[in-house]
Amino acid sequence: MGAAVGEGLFSAIGPLGTTFLRLGFAAIMLLLLWRPQVRGLTRAQYINVLLFGIVLAAMNGAFYSAIRFIPLGVAVTLEFVGPLGLALVQSRRVKDVVWALLAVVGILLLAPIGHEAVNLIGAGLAILAGIFWAAYIVCSARVGQSFPGGRGLALAVAVATVVIAPLGISSGGAALLRLQVLLTGVGIAILSSVIPFSLELEALRRLPSRVFGVLMSIEPAVATLIGFLVLREAIGLRAIVAMALIVSASVGVSLDATTQHQ
Predict the structure, then answer these.
(1) I need a labelling partner for 105 at 20 to 30 A (CA). Which of 174, 215, 237, 257 fits?
(2) What is the pLDDT of residues 119-160, one digit of tens each?
(3) Region for residue 147 given its phi and psi (left: phi exceeds 0; alpha: psi -120 to 50; beta: otherwise)
(4) SS3 sequence of 24-52
C-alpha cells in the first residue's frame, strides 16, 4: 500500500526523492520512539547498523525506481528472487524446499511471460532490489540480535536517510518542501517503513531467516492485489492462481515452523 501511495509522488519528486522522504520521516519517528544511544556501542554494533542502513537505502531506492517502469505486482514478484534464493540456500529441510518451489511456480505465473512485454530497465532494478532484500533479511536479523527493541532499526534508518539524501534531494529539489508532498511522505513512511520494518525485525528475532524468506512469498500476491485495487493494474486468472499457490506456500511453511517451535 505504501508503494502504491508512493508512486503518486514520482511525477513531483521522482522515485529517489520519494525514497528520501520515506526514509527520512521514518527515521524521525523511530528515533523519537526509541531514543537510541549513539555513543558507547561495540564495534560489531556500529558495523551492523552501518551495513543495514546502506542496504536499506539501496533496496528502497532500487525498488521505487523499478516501479516507475513496471507494474507493482511484477516488480515485487521479480524482487522476491532475493529472499526466495536465500531461503533455498539456507534450507536444510526437504519441506522448506518443497514450499519454496511451490512459491516459485506462483512467481513464474505472475511474471510477464508470454505476450506481455517487460521493461528491461525496470526488471533489472527489481532484481537488484531483490538482491538487497536478501541482504536486508540477514542484516535485520543481526541488528535485531545485537540491539534491544527497535534501537538498532532506528539508527539504521537514520543511516539510510543520510546515504540516500544526496540523490533524493537532487531528484526532488524544491518540490520536496511542498506541504502535500511532505504529508504524503509521512504516510508512506508509516505504511512502508515504520510498521513493516518494525514487524519484520521482531519476526526475525523469532524465526529462522530461511522460513522468513519463504513467508515473504506472500508479498508478490499482495502487491498484485493492491496494484489492481489502488492503481487499477490488470489482474487475470493466471495471477489469481499464482497468488493461491504463493499463499499456500506461506501458510505451509508457517504451520511447519509453528509445529517445529512447539
Answers:
(1) 257
(2) 889 889 998 999 999 999 999 999 999 998 899 999 999 999
(3) beta
(4) HHHHHHHHHHHCCCCCCCCHHHHHHHHHH
